[in-house]
Amino acid sequence: MNPRTLTEDKVDNYRWQLGQLELVPIVIGGMGVDISTTALALTACRLGGVGHISDAMVQHVSDRKYNTHFTKAKSETHRATRDQIDKSTVKFNLDHLYQAQLNHVRYTMDRKQGPGAIFINVMEKLTMGAPGDTLQARLRGALDGGIDGITLSAGLHIGSLKLIADHPRFRDVKIGPIVSSVRALKIFLKGAVRLNRLPDYVVVEGPLAGGHLGFGEDWRDYDLHTIVAEVLAFLREENLPIPVLAAGGIFTGTDAASFLRMGAAGVQVATRFTITEECGLPARVKQDYARAREEDLVVSNVSPTGYPIRMLSYSPALGSNIKPQCEAFGYLLDRDGHCAYLDAYDATPVDENGRKLPVQDKVCLCYHFSKFNCYTCGQYAYRLKDTTHRLADGSYQILTASHVFSDYQFSTSHRVALPASQEPPVAAVVNA
After folding, report:
1. Residue 2 — pLDDT band, cuts 50, 70, 90?
2. Structural contact between residues 80 and 90, judged by C-beta atoms closer than 8 angstroms
3. 338-377 pLDDT, tens digit each
4. Does residue 367 contact residue 359 with C-beta atoms inside 8 Å?
5. SS3 breakdown of the chain: % helix, strand, coil, rounded to 5?
6. Of 115, 54, 149, 46, whose CA–CA distance to 406 is shortest?
7. Cβ atoms of 55 and 297 closer than 8 Å
8. Domain that holds residue 176
């Protein structure tokens, strides 16, 4: 292609063949906690792509959306440890956890329409006091709910496939890991080969992605195009026909097309959907995302998971002194009831009134994600304001998911299509 043709290439020139499905190669990532809502996933599916829901804090999501009371029941069961740092006895009811996952997946799948697919993002780092048991309950709930695909994220998932190897849908459901290197993919494939169950796709996530990163403090030394090229070369060398999805920092349709041209089957995108009507963020938070400046983007080590996390510097979660919420939540407790936020909270001194000073080293992700106080986002969140209109009152116009999806699919030359303005014409205001 000559340079002019390259810039005019578009995503709609490509399709992702996934089994019997011929998909528009656009995947909306699974942003938790219910930021990637059912409505957002259904939009992608209706338009011929793939939409994700997330199983992050799924009991809390089930309570908010389906009138269950799993969080309250867990809190009451473990109320004796509320004032203790030792949380080793705080455990999830596995039947409740399974039911919460089943509720969320079944509700979504019952409303599925269109030629696309619905996947769920399942996080290994949600250790939940019993890593294997709780992960298995969530995986089985997703399978029994009829999900089309499972994306395995936030961890290497060395033993995850084994947890569902006896499930009747094990070889039918689409399964793919998120990796940030060839090395991570090789580790996952070792377990997959032992079970004779290769992944149906692999998401290669680069250093500009939102939320938790698969990189250290040297994340700036890495480039998504390079990593994708390395993964594609490895798969060719091993004669493994596994589709690759590029993810992280793909802001325009032209960005997306560049990965499709080099051999990726599709792209996974998320940040631009945070300011859509279908996104689960509250209205005030969508405005906080839209006003972001480049200098507001930070990569921090405040996450108790041990992974660096990209977020907006004015996230209310930062510098909080919230008491640990493990009895109600506890999604990051390891098998011994430990979480890095517990250590940070315990080590933080109190003021003259006995009140904890702000906890600087870590944040309570469970509590703050439940309140939408942790503004995780991709590196190009500061460009969101360029994708919409600033209204007369200073706020930003919220988009529809179908508008953003279509812009990815059909745009060229790095152009971003603005929506029709919601502001009334000047004449109409004068005559009102």
Report:
1. very low
2. no
3. 999 999 999 999 999 989 999 999 999 999 999 999 999 9
4. no
5. 40, 15, 45
6. 46
7. no
8. 3-282+391-420
